[in-house]
Write a structure and sequence with these properties.
The longest helix has 23 residues. This protein has a 3-stranded antiparallel sheet, covered by helices on one side. The protein has 93 residues and is α+β, with helices and mostly antiparallel strands. It has 2 helices and 3 strands. The mean pLDDT is 87.
Amino acid sequence: MEVVSGRAPEPNPYYRCAGPNCGTLKRSTDRWWIMWTSFGEFNRPVLYLCPWDEQIAAREGTLHVCGELCAQRLQSQFMGNVRESQLKRTGAE
């Protein structure tokens, strides 16, 4: 993204799937999903998933997902990362 004439950067109209080993480029007719994580509201890691929304898609930290399989793979990674982090904190393995 570029800053032009002191204005805020414009979002990139080209979205690629964040799924592991995917990278599919979004077309206007695709029915994509958006995922993001948060920690603040519940004081623990939370994974969000919603149907495509252009405003949410442009937000920093969102993952653009081309379909169910890529969403499942990202969910699995999230769950593994949370579990690994819990084990490191407790010292258990």
